[in-house]
Amino acid sequence: MELTFGRFVTALRNAEIGASPAETLTAFEIAERVGIADKALLRDSLALALAKSREEKARFDETFDRFFALAFRDRAKPTFVERVDRDSMMRQLRAGASPGLVQSVANVLDDERDSLAFRIHRAAAESEIHRIKSLREKSLYGRQIGTALGLDELDAYLDAGGPTRGDANTREFLRYLRQYFRQQIGDYVDTQYQLHLDASGKRAILEAALKSNLDQLPVAYHQDVRRVVEKMAEKLAKDHRRRRKRARRGVLDIKRTLRSNVAYDGALFDLKWRQEKREPGAVFVLCDVSSSVARVARFLLLFLYELTEALPNIRAFAFSSRLGEVTDVMRQRETEIAIEEALFTWGKGNTDYARAFADFRELCGSEINQHSTLIVLGDARTNYYDPRVDIFEELTRRAKQTFWLNPETRDRWQEGDSEMRRYAPYCFRVETCNKLRDIERFADRLLVMAR
């Protein structure tokens, strides 16, 4: 029980449920008291000790059902069992089959599938299935478990003609039984793979999302990727607070420190720090939220939403044909509601960079100064409207520095209606930004500039 429970806790941690050692010990005591006869009682009791939030409870239920799939299952008998003469079948098997195969068949005939489940579990443990690392290894472990249960012998037995050539029902039953064993073993291996490598059932998708373009990410996985973004932003904010604390302290002033510690015979008891006063500058972020860029803009806005505490001077704007400020919406409403409202309100119409830059100049032109940072997220595709590079040049000359994040790769910046080649000379840096890691890297740089 201790080994099984330990592996269950490991599966919970793989599913991003933070079960501490103390909580694990408490849950083990609960399991000893309530027993394993009642599935619902055991699941609810353990959930009280191990799952805290609503999301964790949902992942706990899913992981529990997968982990104990063999222990709590449908009790209906397999097909064909009642059509077979058990005594005749066992006599013929004992005459020509191994004890392992005889035992496996007897488990099914006698409906002792708890024993069969235990044998599958024991064979899997002996093959060290908890070390599974990839999808390709699933078939390997399936074959090893099948060999332990006698499937290889069953295949050879059937190929050799089976128990008696004239008993059609017996041969049909053994063929069915072979398929039944393979299904049970396949289900078990698949469950163990998800528990030990992909406990949430979506980790592989999330890892792929970190490496692939966001505009190719299916909408169904936005919620899961959103949690990844929130964790990234939380880590960045934590690192930023640590760096900002050191920055505020300043650098060691050697001369003042030596003078201050003359009375201590050179022992440095009183350290003096030299600080530079810096005027915090505003950060203006302009996001193209038209259909071609909306998916990337969604996650950039989410990053900014999570970093509002670390970036109090940031102002966010969204545009397609017209531009509007979404700073207050991002700070006053819940994440999903704020982002959806920004995309819905300002994501209509054909993209018009000239009008968007003109609107921004009217709204904030007088507030941009030598301490300001201007950030534009967009593909620079103007639908063949006049790009009004002169307005963009005016804005960039007022700002300290300008960054342009383009979700398209560089080889497409000169194709069709893209005007990136005309906007780029007025930017401090132009970067491709179509992956979560691109957004994370730029957000980190933004925090460094803002401290």
Give the terminus-to-terminus CA distance: 53 Å
Looking at the overall shape, the CATH architecture of the largest domain is: 3-Layer(aba) Sandwich
Supply the number of structural domains: 3
The CATH superfamily label of the largest domain reads von Willebrand factor, type A domain
What structural category characterises the helix and strand content?
alpha/beta
The CATH class of the largest domain turns out to be Alpha Beta
Largest sheet: 6 strands, mixed
Helicity level: 55-70%
Mean pLDDT: 78
CATH topology of the largest domain: Rossmann fold
Low-confidence stretches: none
Write the layout of secondary structure elements.
Blueprint: H1 2-14, H2 21-34, H3 39-50, H4 54-67, H5 86-96, H6 99-109, H7 113-126, H8 136-149, H9 151-159, H10 168-196, H11 203-211, H12 222-249, E1 251-252, H13 254-260, E2 273-274, E3 283-288, H14 294-306, E4 314-319, E5 323-325, H15 327-332, H16 335-346, H17 353-364, E6 373-377, H18 389-398, E7 401-406, H19 420-423, E8 429-432, H20 436-450
Parallel strand pairs: 3-4, 3-6, 6-7, 7-8
Antiparallel strand pairs: 1-2, 4-5
Helix pairs in contact: 2-3, 5-6, 7-8, 8-10, 9-10, 12-14, 12-20, 14-16, 14-20, 17-18
